[in-house]
């Protein structure tokens, strides 16, 4: 069997798989013969390809043994890179524009127009279940992005994403599960920024020693080196190259508890006596076992900082202030529970994220 016949059979199987098997569930049509599927075609398998574009997941691609390279969903790829796509139904072509760059992709034709010049990649675009797929080399040769293929993973980084930004913040969320680990800093919920991690992300201590993701905890003050490109989601996401913990190991004030809980919300009450200050926070839990309503005692060892880890004064903790409280699980059984704050992060409304400042400076140049 030649490669074209094998590939068509494989794509038929892939179409059924991507379509959820709806064709198999349909009532049989007795007026037409069933398609002939040979034993060779049945052994042909289409592998699912995971795709990361500028650190964020994109639509899955696929690759059969007859394909020279992975095939990627054109619209998902180009929109993630900031291109505008216009679909022409008549000739099943797509026109892509971004600034001065223009290109045209025609289904079934291994000819890609790049600024009025034709380029061949060895593989023609294909439509599967209404989605147009292009070879992975399209991202590199036509869109001028960096493409890395490792096993069943294709990582694509645009030229703009290569620019680095250094940003400081306090960790409010750590996601270690699955294929896409991440850390959120600079705010909780929809605030701040999500740092997408990969196997190449470096982790360092304040002393310059190599550490790992497992060494990070909520409430740590870190410095992140990440791409200038972010997603349009809330919070935005960005690929991250390095995370450095700024808290000094061995410092009693900066050493977190063995387990850290967190609550983000509004200060409902501040009570100050001659010996202690106590605040009541009501909001959202940052960990599964943390309460949404908690009272925290502030001691001399409690760190008071803003979202970038800069010190703030105790007098700035007033009723109505937005804060994130980090504390150990050692809480009273009262309602609300009472504990001791390890670190309090105060939201300063006039503070501008470091990433925005750096981007503004680059655009001004």
From TrEMBL:
Pfam families assigned: Cu_amine_oxidN1 (PF07833)
Ranges of residues in domain Copper amine oxidase-like N-terminal: 67-156
Keywords (A to Z) from UniProt: Signal
Source organism, top-level taxon: Bacteria
Leader peptide range in chain numbering: 1-25
SUPFAM superfamilies: Copper amine oxidase, domain N
Protein's UniProt name: Copper amine oxidase-like N-terminal domain-containing protein
Organismal lineage: Bacteria, Bacillati, Bacillota, Bacilli, Bacillales
